[in-house]
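Journal club prep — side note

Before the paper discussion, L.F. wants everyone to see what a predicted structure for a comparable chain looks like in token form. Sequence:
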Amino acid sequence: MMKKKLAFFIAAAMSLAACAVPVYADESELMYEDLNYEIADDGHVIITNCYQSAETCRIPEEIDGAPVTEIADSAFSECYFLTKLTLPESITKIGRQAFSACTALESIYLPAEIEYMGAGVFDGCTALKAVDIPAGLTELPEASFYECSDLERVSLPEGIEVIEPESFYKCSSLSGITLPESVTSIGDYAFQGCSSIKSIALPAETVNLGKYIFQDCVSLSDIEADEQNEMFCDKDGVLFTKDGATLVRYPEAKEGTSYKVPDGCTSLANGCFVDAVSLKEIDMNQAVMYGMDIFFRCTGIEEITVPEGAVDISASMFAYCSSLKNVQLPSTLKNINQYAFYTCAALEEFTVPEGVEKIGAYAFFNCIGLKKLRLPDSITELGDGAMGYYAESEDTEPQKLPNFVAEYGHNDVIYEFTKLYELEGTGRGDSDIWKWIAVGAGAIVLAGAVVLIVVHRRKAMIPKPVKGGRTGSVTKPDQKKKKG
């Protein structure tokens, strides 16, 4: 036991010692107080590293007469004890992940002359509370404040044109943000997981929106678009394309338990109703074209009717709709794509309309209450795990659903699927029908041949007419012989 304790203390001491010395990028690096630096070819200083044990750090404007203008990639990365950092006005460039995982850093002043910041510059700075972005930047880099969970305020200057993907990903304390008029584009997942934001307004110039930018914004109840915006508009806090033809995003926290898609809206964009958990009723009205994940995790919806004219149920369209019990599908439907009804636990019976040709992989997987799935003979493709199975977790092997029955008529694809996955099915394969037809046809042909043979033999026994007018070998009973 004493040896184990001794080994533990030695390891701890070595760990502390490691934190007390700088990590060198290469032998050409120089030292200044807690910093490592190097001289660029044009004579300016680049800060390349810092003692990981440093709690405060002040970067000077000059070192040995040379201006300090740049902070290298990952220069302060994982400086876990750093609470305060002072940057000089001479800094114009900050590299990728320069301050990433500085988990104790609460605030930082960014000099006005900064012209460039790399991706993930404050990634994982979980204690950071407020930042003012300098006016010289035109782009907020990708993942700038990724998982900065304590971030409450960010000031974006006029001149910022692009907010790159994941810029504010999971900034859960950020309760609001003002987008400057200059913003034209917001990248994928930019505000995903900003669970405290209640409303957001898109400026007139914002014409490009990435995927799932407001996903997991569980407090967001209102999205507005400037009336002068040529690409987007809002209707009662719901975001649409300017022509109203596509519903772009329904806020997760919007009040009300029912919603009707407005007349003229024919398309629902990717993830437009994701996590709208308060919705219990939805009227899709004229919307017949669908992106992916439309009603993903809409756990309050109990029934839905997909309107006539729809051809595809998109991938993951109703995935995790755990209360969904009744679904009416249109006669125009052709495809039910992968994961379409994944983990719809409340489904007990389901009818796929005639005309549907494809059911994608895992479309009905994990529907633990499903006992009967009625399938049309029009099916030509069934993806892996499309029906009849569930898994208790992602790490466990799939198991057959108890009492599950695939109800169908005559279809080789369904027949082979049920045999492959050892599922109970009520029908049989088309090939079996043709076998029976072939057997029946053979029997008919054989019977016909027998009849022809018998008829032919009987004809051979009947004598031909003879001269004198006799028509047979026997005179008819009512007929008398006549003299010639």
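L.F.'s comment for the group: The chain is about 10% helix and 20% strand. Keep this in mind when we get to the figures.
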